[in-house]
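Protocol step 4 of 5: obtain the predicted structure for the target chain.
Materials: sequence only (see below). No template structures provided, no constraints applied. The aim of this step is simply to have a reference model before the mutagenesis design in step 5. Sequence pasted as it appears in the construct record:
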Amino acid sequence: MPTVTKMPNAPDYMDGIINLRGTVVPIISLRKRFDLCECERDNNSRILVMEVDDGLTGFIVDSVSEVIRIRSNEIQPPPSLALSGGISQDSLPASSIMPKGY
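Step 4 output (structure tokens):
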């Protein structure tokens, strides 16, 4: 994983920023964002970089088994059942239905 530079006065779930081929990318820890216990990062830890609101954002995850591309027309609002358990729509703004085998 690349070195993450800490940013002063950033939210606690924002680990900092990285330089990705000349672009500054904010890095968010999903464990911190969802109030999960912290675990030590290891060789499986990854930063997933995604387009979010016309910019790039990196998300630190424990591991990755596969990377797929999802077209914008395959993204839909999350099911109401997913939001009924107290999960904020800010935390789960959209979902995608994948074909069998994913």
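Step 4 remarks: The longest helix spans residues 30-33. The mean pLDDT is 82.
Proceed to step 5.
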